[in-house]
Amino acid sequence: MGRPTERRPAAATAAGVEVSVVLPAYNEARTIENTVRVTVETLESFLPADAFEVIVAEDGCDDETPEIADRLAAEDDRIRHYHSDDRLGRGGALERAFEAADGDTLVYFDTDLATDMRHLEELVERVRSGEYDAATGSRWMPDRVADRPPKRGVPSRAYNGLVRLFLRSDLRDHQCGFKAFSRETFEALRDDVEDDHWFWDTEMLVRAQRAGFRVAEFPVDWEPKGDTKVDLVRDILGMGSQILRTWWQLTVRPRITRRVTIAAGLLLTVFALALMTLYIDPSEVISVLGDADPALVAAAAVIYVVSWPLRGIRYRDILGELGYREKAGFLTGAIFISQTGNLVFPARAGDAVRAYVVKARRNIPYPSGFASLAVERVFDLLTIAGLAGVVLVGLAATGGLDDIATVLATGVSGGSVNVSADDVRTVAYVATGVGVVAILGVLGIALSARADRNVVRAFVGRFSSDSYVDLVAGVIEQFVSDLQAVAGNRAAFTRVGLTSLAIWTVDVVTAVVVLLALGVDIDPVVLVGVSFFAVSVGNLAKVLPLSPGGVGLYEIAFTVFMAALAPVTPAAALAAAVLDHAVKNAVTVVGGVASMLSLNVSLTTAVEESADVRDRERELAESE
Fold this sequence. Notes:
2 domains, DPG_synthase, 624 residues, Glycosyltransferase AglD, transferase, Glyco_trans_2-like, glycosyltransferase
């Protein structure tokens, strides 16, 4: 990656510079010269001639902007050209230019000069005087003149409303490209601000308010220059995800402690159990569970234990294709710890724990840790979708599809269990959609591995013309390339696929033994076939966080299809689903605790440190 470099005349000097104005520029050949000259003239109207500098933060342009900026810098010592070979993003370009600036008052505005330049003195003096630590123009305050057509105004109001709601900002307009910061404020916040593109200045303003800095917002006259449009990648994937990320960091993560997570988990469990009464009489399920054969329940736990070394072997093979050679025993322990974390922490924070463990103990980089985990998830979805499809073909051959059609139309009722047709269809739609997406996704990635064309960047580019495409596409490309390393290698794909099949077969056999422990006595072929279908559909369905009535989609799927396709009472089927989960969770927790002790890993410490390490990895990658 090309590093930013400054193109500055040798005679230039920083003596006496108080105000540094940065103009972020990307392909501005038509306007940059006029913008620089207007900026210099405006600054000269209220500042001494040697008290300011103007920096063109040219962000990897591929037009004549660099040449124009070089010429302007050669003509006037107060003009500097800060060049980057590669795209840094608007925030990245601003941050690097502010770092190199000589002034104590750091200013930037958009090069299209949409904001009336008569406001520049007010912007500068609010910070230069020491009255405020940061200042921003606003197009949404009273007494301003701003031409905001609906295609600009509606998205802007929505964005600012979300920032005010989620990030508790007092400002009305976070996007106006007309801002100033004191050097002290910038230095205090720059390491905390993670975004390096369109959200950078919003995050600066939000964190400044949270840190107690004085932030001024004042009305400005503003006239849009050029056309605009809602950009899917920039506005939704970019800005939306950054709002959620900052909300999590500032509001949620500081409150996540072991006591809070355990209490929240218990409350959610109690709440879910209470909502189950909408569908069932819990006494009937408890009665069925009370008659379970302890020996067979223990046998189910032992069988499930067998799947864990298989998971370690599969993870070893995935990492091996990415160039990392590790022992299956260590990786099995890492998986145990991460899955235990997923039972304790919200938002699947256990996945970050696994990446932390392999990083801290085996120095596997974070990007590879997360990519390998994603590859594992894709193979899981592909396997269970395939299993469900095979059984579905068998049901079609034996007339079982009629039973599925009936349950989709009527739901399931029996004894004290009542699951509506709408809930059954929700399960079917989600499971089918997830399965189809998984299969098509793997096929597409496998085929793209053999193509010379950059399919990912071309696809993302169809939805956006913004430079944020480079950032989003880069993340997707890294994941796809790691998945291609496995999917594009026939031997590796077969090996990992067969191991995945073995893992999920053990998972289904565990459920079968649980059913036997509850006294289910039906034809073994029917029992195994229906169990494969019920477990597969249930696991596909629970990928999305949809839980009608508080009952998990896995439990609904297992209950519905087991009751519809096999002579098992709904109460017994639901009891089996509950007991099946209890057995598997118990094995996971025991294995997780043992692995934490053997590897000396604390869940809470791992979650906290994983975030810190990822931040350092990102900073290192940006500096290379």
